[in-house]
Write a structure and sequence with these properties.
Elements lengths: L10 H21 L4 H18 L5 H10 L8
Helix pairs in contact: 1-2
Length: 76
């Protein structure tokens, strides 16, 4: 099984999908009330796709970059 830390299905993906669904629902409602659910589903899938495509920030890379910098209080 895969490690939970390496999974691309994370809270950021669900956040993008939720925002896409809300924007889609608003756009569908403005175009006509019967289109609200269809546009919400479309926005959800587009948001999930966008969240999947965008690169995930690797926290270990940021930690290793911070280790390379000298400590300002280090006098040696």
């Amino acid at each position: 099984m895969s490690q939970p830390g390496n999974s691309r299905v994370n809270s950021r993906l669900w956040l993008f999908a939720g925002i896409g669904a809300v924007i889609g629902a608003i756009a569908g409602f403005l175009m006509g009330a019967p289109l609200t659910i269809a546009f919400a589903i479309l926005g959800f899938t587009l948001g999930m796709g966008l969240g999947w495509i965008l690169p995930v920030a690797d926290s270990s890379a940021a930690d290793s970059a911070a280790e390379d910098r000298p400590d300002p209080t280090d006098n040696s």
